[in-house]
Amino acid sequence: MRLWPFSKNPNEETSAEDYKDLDIGTYESSDRPALLIKIATVTDLKGTQNIKNQIYDGHIVVVDISRLKQDKITFERVMKDFKQVSSDVGGDIVGLGDQQYVIISPRNVKISRDRIGGP
Q1: Which of 38, 50, 93, 100 supports an S-S bond with 86, CB 3.0-4.6 Å?
Q2: Where are the domains of the chain?
């Protein structure tokens, strides 16, 4: 792979000797962990810690919150925790369905609110 020349003046003419060959393998590391999308169900406030840890570790989590709808106070506390972790990592959070699912993403992953097709 060739990169730009090391010339300090962009108006100077360049030759093949002005470029440096780089091994792309040194820049593409296979040890970098993959971004995972994880699925979770939360039924109470205790269940949020593991989900928050996954977000802090850089994963996207789709959480089934439908079982929390029976207890409004717990539902609000869990959602407050999820919003806080999303804010802490600079991520994003969005609800899906009729308050049945929430998607929480880590830093540098934003969730579009635009629908593709359909109303």
Answers
A1: 93
A2: 37-105
DSSP letter (8 states) at residue 2? B
Local structure of 84: helix, strand or coil: helix
Do 65 and 98 touch, CB atoms closer than 8 A?
no
Model pTM score: 0.69
CB 41 within 8 Å of CB 35: no
Q: What is the pLDDT tens value at each position of the chain, 119 positions in all?
A: 444 545 555 566 666 666 667 676 665 666 666 789 999 999 998 989 999 999 999 999 999 999 998 899 999 999 999 999 999 999 999 998 887 999 999 998 999 988 888 66
Among the listed residues 102, 109, 107, the one whose alpha carbon sits nearest the alpha carbon of residue 41 = 102
Residue ranges of alpha helices (H) inside 14-101 are: 48-56, 72-89
Name residue 96's amino acid.
L
